[in-house]
Amino acid sequence: MSGDHTEMPIVAALDNFSQKKPLRFHVPGHGGGQALHPAMRKANLPSWDVTELDGLDDLHNPSGVIELAQKKAAGLYGARHTFFLINGTTVGIQALIAAACCEPDSAIALPRNVHRSVLGGLVFSGARPVFIEPQLVPGFDFAAGFTGAALKQVLQAVPEIAAVLAVHPCYYGVVGNLAEAAEICHRYNIPLLADEAHGTHLRFSPHLPPDALEQGADATVQSVHKTGGALTQASWLHLAEGGRVDRKKVAGVLRLLQSSSPSYLLMASLDAARQQLALCGRASLDAALDTALEAARAIKAIPGLTVLGPEHLARPGAVDYDPTRLVVSFRELGLSGYEASRLLAEEYNIYVEMADIYNIVAVLPIGVNREEVGALVHALAGISGQVRGAALKGDSPPLTMPQLPPQIMTPRLAWLARKRQVRLETSAGLVSAEAVAVQPPGIAVIYPGEEITPAIIEYLMVARDHGLQLHGAADPRLGTIEVVDC
C-alpha cells in the first residue's frame, strides 16, 4: 500500500463548501436540503440505504411498493406508465432512443443543442442522427427550440426517421412550439420524445409553459432532482396514454442500462418529491414565481444587465419561458458570464447553475428564500458598479458555433472503429471518433462520425485557450483529438 491514506479529499471539499453556507442558485433543486420533503430531512438516511429485501420490491421487476410509487407518479402526470430512474435523465433518454430506433438503418431527428448524453443512445441503438438547427434567442445567443417548418423539411427528406427528440425546455428555460411538433410527428406516425430534464415542475403552475405530455409528446424524461426536490440522479420517464413508444421495449433497455444495485435513497426521494409536488407544488411555485419576477424587475434596473423576458421571445422556436430560471446577460457591461459567475462565487459566496460567454443562469428552486434572492440582486448590482467604475472588460472568447459538419458515418460505427490521436490543429478533413462539447451547456461541437472542419478546429482552439471546460475528449486538454483510423 502506498500513499497517504489519512486524507479524504472529496469529503473535505464537500464539508468545506457546506461550511461556507453558500447561497445556492443551482441544481439540485432542493437547495441544500431546504426544499427536501420533511420525511427525507428527518430520516436516518444511512439506515435507508438497503438492497432488494422482502417487502421492498425490485426496480427491475416491480410488483410491490416500487410499482405502487410509479403508478402514483404516472397518475400525477397523466401518464400511461412511469419508470423510476436511478441513473439520471441520461439513462432515460438513452432508453427511449434505443427503444424507438431499434430497426436497422433507423434515423432520429433531433436538435443540435441536445445534451451530450444523447450520444450514448446513438451508440447503443446505432441510429443515424439527423440534426435540426435550433433557433437562437437574439441578444443572448443561446439555442432554444426548432421550428415546425424545419421539422417538416427533415421528415420529408429522410423517410428512415423513426423518432423525433425535442428539448423542452432548454437549459435556459425557453421552449419552442412542442404542440406543433407533436402534431407534425403524429401526421407521419412517428413518436415525439422529449428531454424534459429541466421541466419536472412545469405541470404545477398555469403561469409556466405546459409540460411535454400536455402538448402531445409520446414520452418524456424529467430530472426530478433538478426542479422537483429529489436527490441528484433521481429522474423518471413517462409514457403518454395512447403513445407510440412500446413500454416493454423501454423496460427491456432500462434493465440493460440501469444499475443492478439501485439506490433506495434515490427511489425514496422520487416518492417523496411526487407527494410534495402533488400537495404543495402549486403554492410553492406561486411563491417562487412571485420572487423570480420581482427579482427580474430589480435586475433590469441595474445598469448594463439584461434579464431574459417575454419581450425576447419573438421567434417560432422560442415561444415561452420559465421565469424561475433567471437568465442574466452581461454583454452590455463587456463582462463574460464566466467572469460574472466567478465574481459571484469568490466575492459574494453565491453559486449559480451555469455561465456562458454572455450570460449566467440562476435556478430558483421550489421553496426559494426571498432574502437569498435579494442577496443575489444586491451582488449583481455590486458587480455592475465594480465593472463600470473600473472600466473593466471581461475576457469574452469570440465564440460562434460553427455550421454542422458533414456526417461521414454513424456515431456507433465511428465509436467502434479503430482510432488514433492527432493534433487538433492538424485534424481538418479527418473523421472524429469522439464527441467534444463545451460545458456548460454541454452541446456537442463535433460528434463521432462527423468530419472535422477548419471552423470546428478554430472554435475548439478558442474555447481551449480561454480555459473553458471541455467534455468528451480522451485528451482533457484537447491538445489532440481522437479520429477514425481509416
UniProtKB/TrEMBL annotation:
Cofactor(s), by name: pyridoxal 5'-phosphate
All copies of domain Orn/Lys/Arg decarboxylases family 1 pyridoxal-P attachment site, residue ranges: 221-235
The organism's place on the tree of life at top rank: Bacteria
SUPFAM superfamilies tied to this protein: Ornithine decarboxylase C-terminal domain, PLP-dependent transferases
Lineage: Bacteria, Bacillati, Bacillota, Clostridia, Eubacteriales
UniProt xrefs under Gene3D superfamilies: Orn/Lys/Arg decarboxylase, C-terminal domain, Type I PLP-dependent aspartate aminotransferase-like (Major domain)
Stated name of the protein: Arginine decarboxylase
Protein family: Belongs to the Orn/Lys/Arg decarboxylase class-I family.
Record's keyword annotation contains tRNA processing: no
Key words, A-Z: Decarboxylase, Lyase, Pyridoxal phosphate
Listed GO MF terms: carboxy-lyase activity
